[in-house]
Amino acid sequence: MAKRKHTALDFEIDKLTNSIENTLTGESFPTEVSPITIEDLANVRADKVWQFDWGKDYRTPKHKIYKLTTIADPQTIQGLISIKIDVDHVFLNLVENAKHNFGRNKIYEGVPGNLVAFACKISFEKGFDGFVTFIAKTQLIEHYEKTLKAIHFRNNKMIITTSAAKELIQKYFNT
């Protein structure tokens, strides 16, 4: 059986916030990260709104997809993350902002950071000491080193270690 090639991730950490922040008002909104449902998938298609085929990842048994929503508006997905629980760490398959959180006219900042912090939280819950790995696009390696304090390991592999994971979790989950 052929081994699945991992996608190099190209999400940008726009700002590390305490939750997610409205770009116009600076107001912070409490969020919730929860498993995506089959009903959500009907609205999460690779088209003008979403870049990735989340249905394909949903059908991959070892991948778990989570959605980020605000507590005030649980119907509007702000971002998505797909993770795989590995033997001793959590692997990020995909991370994506909703289209309305892209570019100069984005509504919220902090979505990708929130999702990565969630993956770190899962890593601690699984007994992996916060370790999270992912494959980065070459041009974003330095960005992840600065914003997430990730370590560039081999080729394009990035590792978030215990101390960096704790910082992210404390920022987003006030623990």
- Gross morphology is globular
Alpha-carbon distance between the two ends: 42 Å
Into how many domains do the coordinates divide? 1
Return the CATH topology: Aminopeptidase
Question: In order across it, which strands form the biggest sheet?
Answer: 3-4-5-6-8-10-9
Structural summary, described in words:
With 175 residues, the chain is of the alpha+beta class. It has a single domain (20-173), classed as 3-Layer(aba) Sandwich (Aminopeptidase). The chain is built from 5 helices and 10 strands, in the order βββααββββαβαββα. It has helices at residues 38-41, 54-58, 111-125, 141-147, 162-173; strands at 20-22, 28-29, 31-35, 63-70, 79-85, 90-97, 108-109, 132-135, 151-152, 157-160. Helix 3 crosses helix 5 (162-173).
Topology:
Elements: E1 20-22, E2 28-29, E3 31-35, H1 38-41, H2 54-58, E4 63-70, E5 79-85, E6 90-97, E7 108-109, H3 111-125, E8 132-135, H4 141-147, E9 151-152, E10 157-160, H5 162-173
Parallel strand pairs: 6-8
Antiparallel strand pairs: 1-2, 1-7, 3-4, 4-5, 5-6, 8-10, 9-10
Helix pairs in contact: 3-5
What is this entry, summarized?
This protein is an alpha+beta fold and 175 residues long. 25% of the residues lie in helices and 26% in strands. It is built from 5 helices and 10 strands; from the N terminus they run βββααββββαβαββα.
